[in-house]
Design a protein that fits this description.
With about 350 residues, this protein is α/β, with parallel strands linked by helices. The protein has helices at about 5-15, 20-25, 35-45, 50-60, 75-90, 105-110, 135-140, 165-180, 195-210, 225-240, 250-265, 295-315, 340-345; strands at about 65-70, 95-100, 120-125, 145-150, 160-165, 185-190, 220, 245-250, 275, 290-295, 320-325, 330.
Length: about 350
Amino acid sequence: MPENITIKDIARLLNISVSTVSRALRDAYDVNQETREKVLRLAKELNYKPNFGAAGLAGGGTRNIGIILPFITNYYFSMVITGIQEVAYSRGYNIVLYVTNDAPDREEDVLKNLNTQNLDGLLVSICSDSMSRGYLETIMAQGTPVVFFDRVLERIEASKVRQDDYNGAFEAVEHLVQQGYRQIAHIAGPVDLEFTQQRLSGYLAALEKHGLERDDLLIVHSGFSQADGERDMEMLLAAGSLPDAIFAVNDRKAIGAMLTLKKHGIAIGRTIGVIGFTDDPMASIIAPTLSTVAEPAYDVGKISCELLLEHIVRKNNFQPREIVLPGKLIPRESTSRIASTTEQNAVT
């Protein structure tokens, strides 16, 4: 066999057309599963490497997918990227990463200067206070498929993949109530983000179900960092109306709140319960361990990429879909009224 295997070689060995091989490698919908598996198996055996430049010229595509997201350094988004990569690379696509650092002006610059001719499609998680709806609507109107994940734009006709923020928050707060907590505060994210609003709504619904009154003094909106969680907790402690539990919009803020409680010598769990949202690896390392709602970050990335590739292949014949994935409640020491040995050691 020649050193550089081409789709013509694969077609000849399987006695099928070159166009069928090409469509099978692109995971086109009009190739049956048996043929696709034969092509992919032989391509792997022969160590076939696609010529992305030639593929783009021949098929009108670049084999590149753009990803726009706020961060790459936190656990959630790193797992999303892992899911995207697994699907993209298995289908012969490269990924091009654009990081906005959660800054609206940076997001606008990325979209304004984006060369969509070099991309077959775009995966987008918007930043806090995003002002880029117009740019994204223009990109979609020009024919570039867009799929939103996690932080999505509402009232826009596009496919979206996210976790179930409302029910995840509801389960977190109901867990606190079941553990005997009654004065439950919520340290939330930026007020205008859709998933912030969904988690706030889940929090309020759980309070209502269990006959607990809403207290706006116990709801604090800020950013997503550990430092934000520390500041939010200091604000609640200074307000005078001391909560007996904290529901944090994510684990980083929950850990920040726990550090502030430790600094003030307040027993976590026994005196003030804390629960987060994400299941960051730090949640099982910090003492006491942090109760949380695990987000399906890997699946969000994987399904988002699969949806985008369907849009790319089927173009205008694929209707936008919205997929909501459930989270999973993980109770740990931080919501236990019985103080653990590690927790006692941490605050004494």
